[in-house]
Each structure stands twice: as C-alpha cells, then as structure tokens.
C-alpha cells in the first residue's frame, strides 16, 4: 500500500509517481534555464522550469506526453513561458501522436505577475488542447494538488476528455478569497473550509458530473485512473455538445437561486446527502445520481 | 461605443440584434450574406447562465445554419464572482462555451471576435479569445484585473503596478498592447465594415498569436519556447 499524499508531493514527485518507472524524458529541463522574462522587473525570483515540467514518458507501456504544474511556484500560475511550454507540448502531440497527453494540473490560473501575457497564454493552451483532443489524442487532467485548479486553468482542465480528481482536490473558477473580497463573507466565507470544499471539492464535482473519476488522495489511485483514461475519447460532436447544453441547463434550473451543495445533491437525487462530507471517496463514488452521469464520461 | 452604435456602423439597419438583459443575439446581413451575432453588453459579469445562453446561441447557429459566420461582440467585466456560480460549475459552463465555439470553427464557421467596450479575464477567455482571431475598437480596454485587486493578490505595490501599466505591454490595459502581443489581430478604426470584411476574408484559422506577438515585439519569448519544444 502506498500511503503518500498526492496533494503534498511536489509536481516532479507526482509526475514520477504517475508514469512508468524512470520513463520520463524532459523537454526544456531546468538545466536549460528557460525562465520568465517578466519577473525580474518585479523583484520576484524566477524558476528554472517556470513552474512546469513537460516531456514524454510511458504509462503502462504506452507512449504519452505529460506535464506537471508546480503549485509552490507562483501558485502554478500560467505565465508566458509556462504557457508556451504547455502549448509546445500539445502542438508536438498533434504532430507526433502519442496515445495521450496527461496534465497534472495545479494552478491558480493566469499568473497575475505576467497579466496580459498570461491571459493570452492560457487561451493558447486551451486551443492547443482542443486541437489535440479533436485529433483523437486522449487528453487527461489529474487534479490533486493542494492549490487546486482555478481560473483559466480551471476552464482549460474541463476541456479535456477526462478529469480525475481526489476527494480533497478543488476545481473551480474564482477562489473563495476573491469572491469574499468582492462580495463579502456573507456571499462566500473563505474561512469556512467545509463550505469551500462542498462547493468546489472533488466529491461535489463528482456528484454533479463535473469530474469523471473520483479517487483517494493517493498517487497509485491517480496512476490507475490515468491508465484507464488512455482509451477514453469523447468526440466533441454537435450532438454531444447539445446534450451537454441541455444537462447543464437542467442542473442550473434544479438548483434555483440560493441552493447550498447539500441541497443541490439532494435535488439531483443523492440519498442522505448530509452524510457526504464525512464519507471517503469510495463511498461517495457509488452515490452519483444516474441523471448527471452523462455529464461525465465514466458512470459510477 | 455602445453595441447599437457598433451594429449600425457595421450593418446599418440590416440587423435584428437585440439585447436581452446582458445577452446580445441576432443576425445581420453583411455583403449579401447572413451573419450570426452572439455577445454581451452592460459590462456583463459572465456567470453560468450567461455562458450557457451564449453557448445555446452558438449551437443553434452550428446546428441550423451550416457555415454561417459568427461575430462575437465582447463587453465583459469578467466572470461573475458568486458562490452559486462556483457551485454550479462556472468553469464547466465557460469551457462548454469555448468548446461550442471550437466546434463551430471545426465545422467551417468563421468565428470573429470584436471587443467593442471592455474585456476582462474570465469573460474573455471563452469568447473573443476563442475566435479564429479577435479584433478590437481602438477605445476598448482589455485587462486581466484592475490594479488594486492585482496588487492585493500579487502583494506587489499599487505604485509599481501603476507605473508598469504606463509603459509595459504586459501590464498596460490598452488594446494596442494586445495587438503587439498578438492577442488581438487588428484594431477596427473608422470603417468598421472594412475591418469585418478583412477578418471574414482571412480563412487561415490556425492559432498564430504567439508568432504575431514575436513579430510585433510585444511578446518576445512564447513563440521561441513553443518552437524549442517542437525541436527538443
């Protein structure tokens, strides 16, 4: 049994734990010192990999391209170089056709220290990801870092074929602190950890169909989920997007204006929703209502 | 400029665009062809509902009018900052909108973005920035976040960020900087119809933003890093 916490590992430790042993070959490694051109003027130290490791590897013997974002460097924020490394990886995937691109996403979104350049970069990553997905390369997001996956990267992540989350991971758009500072603690109390997790955490995203696989905070579980996702392709057809549109509207209508997570889970058909926060991932996996399963690709 | 002014300078009276709350939708006749218009107004805060509403309009065009050009009219203060929107997966709704635009492009619809007022971060990433190319009016404003909020999050001083925003394209909100960085392909100045005509005539839908950022000198590193990854 592996008892390590995926959330507490560094990006490079996570990457090594996911791919086949010693199979990772890095492109633009730290020794190349490809660093941000924007941080020095702000007096902010650079990182030699700009907070993301990219390269090729094998997973269960199959060729993949892989990237891992480091949440400890600028919150995993996407700057010009960081974003360009991801775009390069995805465009190379389009050219070289690995079986999958696996991204270990941990990011606050656009790196505000690089503002405009980061915003454009995130958008370039999104288009490059959708190009790879449309070409039939499985695109897989593993969200399990302590900093979660937010902002533009939160959007990019949900553009993948498969999103895997742990029960302690978070996937959302704006962080609770940002919402609280704009609209007050009455809107979203960022210090109420239970509220934050049931609004943006892995269990919630699983029960409402926004993540496709829910695992424990365990590198072996993430690796197994990544292997299973190698053959998951969700072609983005008009019919598929029309169905997604109907389901998202239905889910929004059911929630009404003021619903809390527990109320929403109940309305969607989760039995004893109140118990969910105390359950482990395995127990929550079987609770997903059949009605939301088509929003994800796996089913329970 | 307000959206009515933009519509009338582009189409004269040949359009049926209407605003429903913050949502803009309709069609117009341009050079004898029908164009679909989808967008937002009132500096909309884009939440789940407005993202899904735009996505439905895009899907309706893709489903019912193959090949019809889509013009995205952008005016947004960014994503809606509400707990309800996070609960309901605002990132999912925005990704869905982006995917609908991407499908429209793959199905042969020209997708043109126009920032006619303001564009901030989350509301922009899955609209104008997902177009084949995004354009802007010279007086428009594009930014990630306003300086006081940026200072709070980055822990950098407002004075430093203010001074950088005067000179540094990475921080300055003016659309000319976005042109220099490749994020905006062109400014539509004066004759807006000429701008739209040129955009519709450009049928190369590949993402050229990094290359244009390098050529124009506003974003010097991205294109080179992408090339190095491809050659590594």
Q: How are helices and strands ordered from N to C of chain A?
A: HEEEHEHEHEHHHEHHHH
- Determine and state the CATH class of the domain at 11-171 and 211-233 in chain A: Alpha Beta
Strand order of the largest sheet of chain A: 1-2-3-4-5-6-7
Report the sheet with the most strands of chain A, covering strand number, pairing sense and barrel closure: 7 strands, mixed
Mean pLDDT of chain A: 95
The CATH architecture term of chain B is Alpha-Beta Complex
Range of helix content of chain A = 25-40%
Distance between termini of chain B?
Answer: 47 Å
Strand elements of chain B, count: 9
Q: What share of the residues of chain A does DSSP label as strand, in percent?
A: 5-15%
Return the average pLDDT of chain B rounded to an integer.
Answer: 95
Give the percentage of residues in beta strands of chain B. 15-25%
CATH superfamily of chain B: 2-enoyl-CoA Hydratase, Chain A, domain 1
Radius of gyration of chain B: 18 Å
Number of strands of chain A: 7
Could you say which overall geometry of chain A the principal axes of the C-alpha atoms support? globular
Main CATH class of chain B: Alpha Beta
Helix content of chain B: 40-55%
Low-confidence stretches of chain B: none
What is this structure, in a nutshell?
With 300 residues, chain A is α/β, with parallel strands linked by helices. Chain A is built from eleven helices and seven strands. Chain A has a domain at 11-171 and 211-233: 2-enoyl-CoA Hydratase, Chain A, domain 1, CATH 3.90.226.
Plain-language structure description:
The complex is a heterodimer of chains A (300) and B (232). By secondary structure, chain A is an alpha/beta fold. Chain A has a domain at 11-171 and 211-233: 2-enoyl-CoA Hydratase, Chain A, domain 1. Helix content of chain A is 39%, strand content 13%. In chain A, strands 1-2-3-4-5-6-7 form a seven-stranded mixed beta sheet, with helices on both faces. In chain A, strand 5 (138-143), helix 4 (151-157) and strand 6 form a beta-alpha-beta unit. Chain B is globular and about 50 Å long. Chain B has one domain (3-205): 2-enoyl-CoA Hydratase, Chain A, domain 1 (Alpha-Beta Complex), CATH 3.90.226. Chain B starts with a helix and ends with a helix. The longest helix of chain B is centred in the first third of the chain and has 17 residues, at 48-64.
């Amino acid at each position: 049994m592996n008892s390590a916490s995926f959330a507490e590992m560094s990006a490079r430790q996570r990457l090594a734990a996911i791919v086949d042993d010693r199979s990772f070959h890095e492109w633009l490694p730290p020794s190349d010192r490809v660093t941000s051109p924007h941080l020095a003027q702000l007096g902010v130290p650079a990182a030699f990999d700009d907070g993301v490791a990219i390269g090729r590897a094998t997973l269960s013997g199959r060729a993949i391209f892989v990237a891992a974002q480091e949440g400890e460097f600028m919150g995993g924020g996407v700057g010009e170089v960081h974003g360009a490394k991801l775009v390069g990886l995805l465009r190379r995937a389009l050219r070289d056709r690995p079986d999958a691109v696996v991204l270990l996403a941990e990011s606050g979104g656009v790196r505000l220290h690089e503002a405009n350049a980061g915003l454009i970069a995130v958008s370039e990553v999104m288009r490059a990801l959708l190009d790879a997905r449309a070409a039939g390369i499985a695109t897989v997001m593993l969200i399990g870092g302590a900093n979660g996956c937010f902002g533009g990267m939160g959007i990019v992540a949900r553009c993948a074929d498969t999103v895997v989350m742990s029960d302690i991971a978070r996937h959302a758009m704006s962080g609770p602190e940002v919402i609280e500072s704009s609209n007050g603690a009455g809107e979203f109390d960022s210090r109420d950890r239970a509220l934050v997790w049931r609004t943006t955490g892995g269990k919630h995203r699983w029960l409402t169909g926004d993540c496709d696989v829910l695992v424990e905070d365990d590198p072996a579980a993430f690796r197994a989920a990544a292997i299973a996702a190698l053959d998951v392709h969700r072609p983005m057809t008009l019919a598929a997007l029309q169905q997604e549109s109907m389901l998202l509207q239905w889910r929004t209508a059911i929630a009404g204006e003021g619903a809390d997570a527990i109320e929403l889970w109940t309305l969607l058909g989760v039995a004893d929703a109140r118990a969910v926060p105390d359950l482990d991932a395995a127990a929550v996996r079987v609770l997903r209502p059949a009605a939301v399963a088509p929003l994800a690709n796996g089913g329970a | 400029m307000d959206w009515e002014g933009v519509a009338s300078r582009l189409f004269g009276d040949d359009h049926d665009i209407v605003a429903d709350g913050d949502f803009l939708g309709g069609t117009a006749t341009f050079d004898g062809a029908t164009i679909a218009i989808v967008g937002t107004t009132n500096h909309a805060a884009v939440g789940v509902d407005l993202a899904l509403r735009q996505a439905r309009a895009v899907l309706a065009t893709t489903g019912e009018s193959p090949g019809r050009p889509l013009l995205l009219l952008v005016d947004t203060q960014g994503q809606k900052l509400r707990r309800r929107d996070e609960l309901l997966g605002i990132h999912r709704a925005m990704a869905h909108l982006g995917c609908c635009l991407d499908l429209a492009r793959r199905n042969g619809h020209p997708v043109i973005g126009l920032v006619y007022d303001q564009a901030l971060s989350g509301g922009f990433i899955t609209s104008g920035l997902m177009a084949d190319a995004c354009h802007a009016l010279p007086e428009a404003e594009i930014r990630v976040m306003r300086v006081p909020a940026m200072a709070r999050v980055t822990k950098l001083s407002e004075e430093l960020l203010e001074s950088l925003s005067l000179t540094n394209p990475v921080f300055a909100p003016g659309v000319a900087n976005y042109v220099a960085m490749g994020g905006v392909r062109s400014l539509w100045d004066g004759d807006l119809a000429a701008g739209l005509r040129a955009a519709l005539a450009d049928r190369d839908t590949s993402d050229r933003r990094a290359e244009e950022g390098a050529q124009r000198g506003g974003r010097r590193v991205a294109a080179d890093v992408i090339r190095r990854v491809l050659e590594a």
